[in-house]
Amino acid sequence: MANILCIGAGYVGGPTMAVIAKHCPQHRIVVVDINEERIAAWQSEHLPIYEPGLDEIVHSTRNKNLLFSTEINRHIAEADIIFVSVNTPIKSFGQGAGKAADLQFWEKTARQILENSSSPKIVVEKSTLPVRTAEAMEYILNSNANRLHFDVVSNPEFLAEGTAIRDMEEPNRVLIGGRETPSGQRAIQAIVDIYTHWVPKERIFTTNLWSSELSKLAANAFLAQRVSSINAISALCEKTGADISEVAHAIGLDKRIGPHFLRASIGFGGSCFRKDILNLVYLCQYYGLDEVAAYWEQVITMNESQQARFVSSMISSMFNTIAGKRIALYGAAFKANTSDTRESPALAICRALLEERAKIVISDPHALDNARIDLGDAARQVMFESDPYAAAKEAHAIAILTEWVHFTTLNYETIYRSMAKPAFIFDGRNTLDHKKLHAIGFNIYAIGKPPLTHFSAS
Ligand code: NAD
Ligand code: UGA
C-alpha cells in the first residue's frame, strides 16, 4: 500500500484522485486544500464541481480509500507520493505580468512539503507549469539539511472539463517525465505502476522532465490553435456565403486533419488555454524566440476578435442599438457539461453587451452560481434565471453561448410567442436547427453561416 497525497482539491485534483482511488483500492488517497469550504463540499452531498460521473465515483470511494482534508502538514508527513495540483494563474505584477505563470503558490507548496517531511518522497507535478519548473522544485526540495531525497516527476493532466471522468478512465495517453538517474527511473516506475491498474501499458509514455512539461503546454496550444483556425475561416464564410459546418466537415474528412476541434464558436474559454498560451509566449520571448512568440500570441488575438465580431454582429443586426433591449443569454459555462465559468466567452460577451446598456438575463442549467461570482461587479446589472423560457420572455434576442443539449430541446414555438418582435437568435455555437427556427419566425444569425432573416433587404 502507498500513501498518496494530492495537494489542491480543484477541477483536476478532485476527479483525478477519485479515479485513482477507484482503481487502486489498495492505496490510501488523501486530497488536501487550503480552502476549507471546498474540502467541506467534497465531504458533502453537493460536490464543489459538476462533472458527469463524478458523484458516483466519489460516493463509492469516499471514506474508504479516498479522504478529503485540510490537515495539509500531517498528510504531507505521512505521504509516499505527493501529486501537486494547485492553481498556476498568470502573474498580475512585476516582470512577466499578464503572461508568465505566477509560481508563488507552487513554491510555497514545495517549501511546505520540505518542512513537513521526514522520509523521502516522490513529488509529482500535476499542475501545468513552465518548462524547467521541476528543476526549481528539485533545488528547493533537495536543499534540506537532513539529506532527505526527493524525486520530482512530471505527470501533466490532459482531461477536459465535462468529460473529465471519461478522459481519466480511458486516456489517449498518460505522460510521465522524470530524471534519467536510477532514482528518477524508480520514481517514474512508481507512477507508471499506479496507472497500469487501468490504463493499457502502450498508452503510458515516459519521457525526460522537460519534454513532459513542454508537451502539456504544446498540446493546449495546438488545440486552441485549431479553434482559432476554424474561427478565422468562419469569419471568411460570413463574407463569402460559404457555410462553416460544411467547410469544417470537408476539411476534417482529410485523415491528416481529422474531424475533432473544428467546431466554430464564440471562441475558446476555460481556465487554461489562454493562460497556457500566454505562458508559452512568455517562455519564447524569454529565450529570444520573438517570431515563435508572435505566432502563438496570434491564437489569442484571433480568439478575442471572434468574440468582438459576435457582439458587433448582434448590435448591427438589431438595428444598431441594443440599449434597453432585453437579451437572453443561453449559457454561462465556458463549454457544455461543466459548471465552470472561468474565462468563459459567454461572460466576456455579457460584459460587452452590458456596455451597450442591454438588459441581460443569463440562463444556464449548472453554472449560474459561478457566473454570479466570476462576473464580479457586473453581476449586479444582470438577471439570473434558471428557466430558459422565463429568461426569453419579452426578450428581443436569444444568444446561444454554451452548447448545452438542454437548449436544443426547448419548445422554440412557445419561446417565440413570448418574445418581442422581430425576434432574433444569435447562435454562437451552431447547435440549433436554424431552418426550423426560421420557419417559426425567428431571424437567425449563426457563426460562419449566411443569416436567415425575414427582412426583405436580406
Ligand atoms: P483549481 O483552482 O480548481 O484548484 C486548485 C486548488 O488548489 C484550489 O482549490 C486551491 O485552493 C488549491 N491550492 C492553492 N494553493 C494551495 C496550497 N498551497 N495548498 C493547498 N491547496 C492549495 O485549479 P484546477 O482547474 O484544478 O487546475 C490545477 C492545475 O491543473 C493548473 O495548473 C491547471 O493549469 C492544470 N489543469 C487544469 C485542467 C482543468 O480542466 N481545469 C486540466 C488540465 C490541467
Ligand atoms: C482543455 C484540453 O482539451 C484538455 O486536454 C486540457 O487538459 C485542459 O484544456 C487544460 O489543460 O485545462 P477544457 O478547457 O476543459 O480542456 O475543454 P475543451 O474541450 O478543450 O474546450 C476548450 C474551449 O474551446 C471551450 O470553450 C470550448 O467550447 C472551445 N471549443 C472546443 C470550440 O470552440 N470549438 C471546438 O471545436 C472545441
Description:
The protein has helices at residues 13-23, 36-42, 54-61, 72-78, 104-115, 133-141, 164-169, 182-195, 209-240, 244-252, 273-286, 290-317, 345-355, 368-374, 388-392, 412-418, 434-440, and strands spanning 3-7, 28-32, 66-69, 81-84, 121-125, 150-154, 174-178, 204-208, 326-330, 359-363, 382-384, 397-400, 424-427, 443-446. 42% of the residues lie in helices and 14% in strands. Helix 1 crosses helix 3 (54-61), helix 9 packs across helix 11 and helix 12 (290-317) packs across helix 13 (345-355). The protein has a six-stranded parallel beta sheet with strand order 3-2-1-4-5-6, with helices on both faces. The protein has a six-stranded parallel beta sheet with strand order 11-10-9-12-13-14, with helices on both faces. Strands 7-8 form a two-stranded parallel sheet. The structure holds nicotinamide-adenine-dinucleotide (NAD) and uridine-5'-diphosphate-glucuronic acid. Uridine-5'-diphosphate-glucuronic acid binds next to helix 9.
Bound molecules: nicotinamide-adenine-dinucleotide, uridine-5'-diphosphate-glucuronic acid
Shape type: elongated
By DSSP (H or I, 4+ residues per run), the number of helices equals 17
Portion of residues in beta strands equals 5-15%
Largest sheet: 6 strands, parallel
The average pLDDT is: 96
Spatial strand arrangement across the major sheet: 3-2-1-4-5-6
Nearest-angstrom radius of gyration? 24 Å
The counted number of beta strands is 14
Structural class based on helices, strands and sheet pairing: alpha/beta
Low-pLDDT residue intervals, each spanning 5 or more residues: none
Helix percent band = 40-55%
Distance between the termini: 69 Å
